[in-house]
Model the fold of this input.
Amino acid sequence: MLAASVLWGTTGTAATFAPDVGPLAIAAVAMGLGGLLQALVAAPRIAGSAARLRERRGTVVLGAVSVAVYPLAFYSSMHLAGVAVGTVVSLGTAPLASALIERVVDGRRLTRRWLLAAALGLAGTVLMCVAEAAHASGGAGRASPAGTLAGIGLGVVAAATYALYAWAAHRLITDGIPSRPAMGAVFGLGGLLLLPVLAVTGAPLLASWSHAAVGAYMAIVPMFAGYVLFGWGLARVPASTATTLSLLEPAVAAVLAVLVVGERLPGAGWAGVALVVACLAVLTTPSRTSRGPGHPSSTGPPVPATATTAPQQPQPEATAPTG
Done:
């Protein structure tokens, strides 16, 4: 999960090398081609799991539609309301949306540990975005109030759809479908839904080799490789934990903006990075809860904390990514 978040955090820096490409084109090429590549690589395994995928077609379709809507809403939110507001709304509220879905649909109860981690992560994300907004406040071309409100609304849509496709993929995996065919089916169908958007908006991607290289990178590295890792992780943790771990993404994006793009991050921004790291430490440090005799994990390796305390279903063995 953390490795996937690191890869996702590179997308903002990569997009700076294609300034003439709009947010819809970036979204469509990244998630669209990345999703189709996942489906292509996993095609034999998807065929082997076709019967089980058909039995759960509603979950597959829900995940695919969410995969298609999420990047369009996310990149448009940042375009309309600014990177700071778009990021904090889209990524900062996704763990809350995911936890709400798990609470309502699965009946899971949130732990105090997850609440503490989510609060630290959200606070850190807010600090980073406030610092970025303050640093850019003297610039021209600020977003209009209407654009900001539209961007906030799209950010909420992005958070909800991110939480939905994470939940749908996790549900397929815990129902016995290995991670590769589950993710390949959901993201492949989502990629198909994004192809018309790419056909309409993607012309600037072909305007230069640098733009084409950015599009290829976005599709292959953060979206294809990142979501292979994401699916592998979803076999081991609940969706609410996965979305909370993804709060590392804006921290990575901020650091890369400093190191690669040459931006400056104020002290409040670095404090936000520290809070996100603290969130990840709280969430991933093995708990020292006592286990009764005969507990299956009493002598095994530590298990990362999850967002809930409901009894866990037996987890299927995930298929590790191959070279």
